[in-house]
Amino acid sequence: MKVGIVVDNDLNDDKRVLREIEILKEAGYEIFVLCFGFENKSYSRIKGINITRIRLSKRIKNVLFFFINTIPAYEWMWSFKINKFISINNVNILHVHDLYMSESGWSGIKKSGTGIPMILDLHENYPYAVTTYNWTKGFLRNLISQPHKWKKKEKKLLDYPKKIIVLSEEFRDHLIVEYKFLTPDRFCILPNVPDLRQMENSKVNSENIAFVKKAPVILYFGVVAERRGIFDAIDSFREVITKGYDADLLVIGPIDKKDRKRFYDVIFNPDIKQRITYIKWIDISELPYWLGLSDICLAPFIKNPQHESGVANKIFDYMSGKRPVIASDCLPQQKLIEKYKCGVIYRTHEEFTNSLIKLLTDREQCKIMGENGYKAVLNEFNMDSKKSNLVEAYKSLLIN
């Protein structure tokens, strides 16, 4: 059975898509992938996958996508490519990633005349998320990109696929309430849980590491952006330091362009600049090393519909590193952390600050929470335990 996977991205760096591909390969499916191959970039071969890359500069790709709601050339291009992809490879199921690819996937199938079923893989609550992206902000950008249109188009885009993959039960339930034609059996729940084999095979390259642990370390890992709560985290950290508690803040991840100046202004504040270390980028294989140096991990997402669509990768990464998590009260992560007693949930700035103080002064509780999280990952929240959801979704399509 041949599966066609479509992702408008750089496949080699897409951890979630690669995990799904491995599951489908193990289940006996032959995998064909249609993705971008950005100019001036070479790609290593991925064993056991037939890959067709659309060679294009990343700049042109971004421009085409920016205009998608005014001049849908991006959708036309993908529809043409998908039609050709289906016909050449004789795929039996089309699996497209992200809400905005649903139209092109459906159109490509229609043009091919095959009538094959389509699976839509939702990585986020896109209609809300797109309104928070910097490239849609500002009068002119908003006027051209028209991010509000995605909410208007969501109903139609969700009606095309036979199966919809989501990150959490909460997001599934939200969509079912909003769109009455959707039923629970149309969904597959596949959270961003880690692959235990990748955890076992992780490699650490610490040749250039200059960070020296001198005090308890609070780790923030991921995109550095206001919407991710980084400035809330720094504000609470500053308050903790001002009150005389001993701690260092380690921030690892790329900075959103819009937030760059503000971030550097904040971390060079005289009160805390000696206490904050910023590292722009690490390979994901190095994360276990940094988790080993850390004592407390942060997931301070701003509570909104996007961050309530599922549990972020990094929370499971923190748990796999046996570290307690301090997280905002976004519903999926709140339910996870409270159920497995692997961290602390906060709702206000005061609660955030007090949570930091609580864990900095109770090392035994940190250890217990860390062990609880690790056990939850080993026993339940890993790809081996969740992969049957994806396999069963595929089987149901073939039966129907």
Structure description:
This protein has 400 residues and is an alpha/beta fold. The chain has two domains: 2-193 and 384-399, Rossmann fold (3-Layer(aba) Sandwich), CATH 3.40.50; 199-379, Glycogen Phosphorylase B (Rossmann fold, 3-Layer(aba) Sandwich). 45% of the residues lie in helices and 16% in strands. The protein contains 17 helices and 13 strands. A seven-stranded parallel β-sheet has the order 3-2-1-4-5-6-7, sandwiched between helices. The longest helix is centred in the N-terminal third of the chain and has 17 residues, at 73-89. The radius of gyration is 22 Å and the shape is globular.
In brief, what are we looking at here?
It contains 17 helices and 13 strands. With 400 residues, it is α/β, with parallel strands linked by helices.
